[in-house]
Specification:
By secondary structure, the chain is α/β, with parallel strands linked by helices. Helix content is 42%, strand content 14%. It contains seven helices and five strands, in the order H-E-E-H-H-E-H-E-E-H-H-H. The protein has a five-stranded mixed beta sheet. Strand 1 and strand 2 form a beta hairpin. The longest helix is centred in the N-terminal third of the chain and has 26 residues. The two termini are 36 Å apart. The structure holds zinc ion. The site of zinc ion (ZN) has 6 residues, from helix 4. Zinc ion binds next to helix 4.
Length: 213
């Protein structure tokens, strides 16, 4: 019993670290998801969602934490590790976790529309694959889901405040198809109508929104 309690206490501490990384993502305008990889009680990889900043569809917290851990260990097989992540991993991350042979994953809250561990798929425990992962969830679940809910609430409020009059849409400059943006110039600016701006929302955003509403 003592060992289990100690492990749970450590788990909460690592999840708290993942939450701090998620908070850091939020300050950059990214969906707040954070992850850490732990081996022998030490953090060997950290990641916070950088998809928007890096324009990287693979820039999820888990992927970044796995890469850092593999560099630190000097092996793509992450034997003896536990990955802590604030949100249930998606299909891509669950696949990467299986490929990295991570033996154990602990996640905070579920993602009913994008989760590939319990919600939509069960990739990590699929017996047809050559590696299976022990999964635990619900550690600091409330904190993890509150962080996402607050992020999307702020995003909605911001969206309402910056909404422009309807006649603005007609006058807006249309971007020229295929024309490259000049160096240092953003192709789409705040002055252009919302449907021409890069999307902030995504499947992950929507699913996470649904998760917390
Ligand atoms: Zn992911």
């Amino acid at each position: 019993m003592r060992m289990i309690r100690e492990e749970t206490a450590d788990g909460a501490a690592f999840m708290r670290l993942a939450l701090r990384l998620a908070r850091r993502a939020a300050t950059r305008g990214e969906v707040p998801v954070g992850a850490v990889v732990v081996r022998d009680g030490a953090v060997v990889g950290r990641g916070s969602n950088r998809r928007e900043r890096a324009n990287d569809p693979t820039g999820h917290a888990e992927i970044l934490a796995l890469r850092q851990a593999a560099r630190a260990i000097g092996d793509w097989r992450l034997a003896g590790t536990t990955l802590y992540v604030t949100l249930e991993p998606c299909v891509m991350c669950a696949g990467a976790i299986v490929n990295a042979r991570v033996p154990r994953v602990v996640y905070g809250c579920r993602d009913p529309k994008g989760g590939a561990v319990d919600s939509l798929y069960d990739i990590m425990r699929d017996r047809r694959l050559n590696h299976r992962v022990d999964v635990e969830n619900g550690i600091l679940e409330r904190e993890c889901s509150i962080m996402l809910r607050e992020f999307f609430q702020r995003l909605r409020i911001k969206g309402e405040m910056t909404e422009r009059p309807k006649d603005f849409r007609g006058k807006a400059r249309q971007p020229v198809a295929g024309a490259p943006a000049k160096m240092g110039e953003r192709r789409f600016t705040e002055r252009e109508p919302p449907h021409h701006r890069p999307r902030v929302a995504s499947t992950r955003v929507e699913s996470a929104t649904d998760l917390v509403l």
